[in-house]
Specification:
This protein is of the alpha/beta class and 480 residues long. It contains 15 helices and 13 strands. It has helices at 8-15, 25-38, 51-58, 62-74, 125-135, 151-163, 179-190, 205-213, 230-240, 261-274, 332-340, 348-359, 361-386, 410-419, 448-468, and strands at 78-81, 85-88, 112-113, 173-176, 196-201, 217-222, 244-247, 277-281, 306-311, 323-326, 400-404, 422-423, 439-443. It comes from Kribbella lupini.
Length: 480
């Protein structure tokens, strides 16, 4: 809740049983508040209740609260601003750093790479490419520019939405060079410089970077341990009136959470009331791993107010770089105008390949899901065996596990693990506002034996770190 007043009753609920510890009460309260701020459950920039309000809510002495606030100020987690009261902050030592970018799988030879949540290509890519090459001559006599995408691909994509119960015409589909490009186009079309865009926290950092580079201001709403906090989201929408919202509701990256149909409907109503355009990323929709029935598309609950992003990067192969936007009919021209300032269309050959793959998805994707299910279970078993103190909820789909560590050492662990041959991205990188130092995302996209060995090295790294204290951080990597 960046920049907003945190009610004393809400903070009391977040604190939980903070006093169940030895030592002075003020120190226990300060430590619990510090962890909530470091983990992003209380966002930097949030205004805490006054000392009197929190004293009444917790039933403690005014001295206890005043001393706790003073300790947080001394440690850099709280600042005092005239007219704003006590505002949360992050010490510079745990602020997220972007660092350099590397190409996953190219310059990581000899290392176990947990930075990239993307799988190798599905079987059948080469066959689809060969078939597409036969179709290519029909397009060579044209200029080759298709700002909206090849008609045959748009028809396949539209048919997939129809099959899910969402009426869609090919004219509502705009093919892009991947989901990240689709995000940039949608944000550019629907916002102006300085507009607010709501996101979750944690969330996919590269997409947040794209939103910020468009000139928009990111407003992050923390997710609860069980998923989306609907009352908090609704309150944030009312208080900040975001022009747009960018969310991942299907096996959310990085938490793996799946938003229920009831919550989708409730959130769609909140967006409609505030005239907020919801931009929903469905990149991971095709990857349910437990045979569960998927909720209706988010756009089903507001067909005229929701823009949907799709992609084949996670389901088929990232190397194809084909994504798309499903756009309400009234917004198609606006989206195309925004797209014209960025590129003139996706590559024709790749579009032909994806058209073939989508026609064969019923025979291709079951094998992909079975392989990911085996890898997910292998990673979970390895974590339970050698890192039993790490907490996680087994995701029902997607590509990654979101783990909670016993201590806020995520960024330090990145450096130690790299020296032991394991590449990681700290949880703080997934927070738009910083924090989440007790979390780590672990993709399960490598084979089971590789995952088991990587977790053993990770456990050894964690043991070294906790025995001797924090180590120097290294730069973060490109995150998929």
């Amino acid at each position: 809740m960046t920049g907003q007043q945190l009610p004393a009753s809400t903070l009391s609920g977040l604190l939980g049983a903070w006093s169940d510890t030895n030592g002075p009460a003020y120190r226990a309260l300060a430590e619990r508040l510090r962890l909530l701020i470091a983990d992003g459950r209380i966002m930097p920039g949030s205004r805490l209740p006054s000392e009197r309000e929190l004293t009444d809510a917790l039933g403690v002495s005014r001295t206890t609260v005043a001393s706790a606030y003073r300790e947080l100020r001394d440690r850099g987690y709280l600042t005092s601003r005239r007219g704003s009261g006590s505002v949360t902050a992050l010490p510079s030592r745990i602020e997220p750093e972007l660092g350099r970018h590397h190409a996953p799988g190219i310059d990581t030879d000899g290392l176990y790479d947990f930075t990239c949540a993307a799988s190798p290509a599905v079987p059948g890519i080469s066959t689809a490419v060969a078939a597409a090459m036969e179709d290519l001559p029909h397009h060579l006599a044209t200029p080759g520019y298709h700002p909206q995408g090849l008609p045959e691909l748009r028809e396949e994509i539209a048919a997939s939405y129809e099959a899910r119960g969402l009426p869609t015409s090919a004219d509502q589909i705009i093919v892009t060079a991947g989901a990240l490009a689709a995000t940039s186009i949608a944000i550019r079309a629907m916002t102006q410089i300085g507009d607010r865009v709501l996101t979750e926290s944690p969330t996919h950092p590269n997409s947040v970077d794209a939103i910020r580079r468009s000139g928009a201001r990111v407003v992050a709403a923390p997710m609860s341990p069980g998923g989306w906090d609907l009352p908090l989201l609704e309150a944030t929408i009312r208080q900040t009136a975001p022009r747009a919202a960018w969310l991942v509701v299907d096996f959310q990256n990085p938490t793996g959470r799946l938003m229920s149909a009831a919550d989708r409907q409730r959130l769609a109503i909140a967006f409609a009331r505030s005239r907020t355009t919801a931009i929903i990323d469905e990149t991971l929709y095709e990857l349910p791993l437990d045979g569960q029935e998927m909720p209706p598309p988010f756009a089903s609950f507001d067909p005229t107010g929701v823009i949907t992003i799709g992609s084949v990067s996670k389901s088929f192969w990232g190397g194809l770089r084909i994504g798309w936007l499903r756009v309400p009919e009234t917004l198609v021209a606006r989206i195309l105008d925004a797209r014209a300032s960025m590129d003139l269309g996706a590559p024709v050959l790749e579009q032909l390949v994806v058209t073939r793959l989508l026609r064969e998805r019923a025979s291709i994707l079951p094998e992909r899901r079975a392989g990911l299910r085996e890898r997910r279970d292998a990673l979970a078993d390895a974590l339970r065996s050698v890192l039993p103190d790490w907490k996680f909820t087994l995701p029902g789909g997607g590509l990654s596990m979101w783990c909670e560590l016993p201590a806020a050492v995520g960024s330090s662990l990145v450096g130690v693990a790299q020296r032991n041959g394991v590449l990681l991205v700290a949880g703080s990188r997934f927070s738009p506002e910083g924090g989440l130092e007790t979390f780590m995302r672990l993709p399960y996209t490598q084979d089971p034996d590789t995952l088991r060995h990587a977790v053993e090295l990770l456990a050894a790294s964690y043991g070294q770190l906790t025995e001797r204290g924090p180590a120097r951080r290294t730069a973060a990597a490109l995150i998929a």
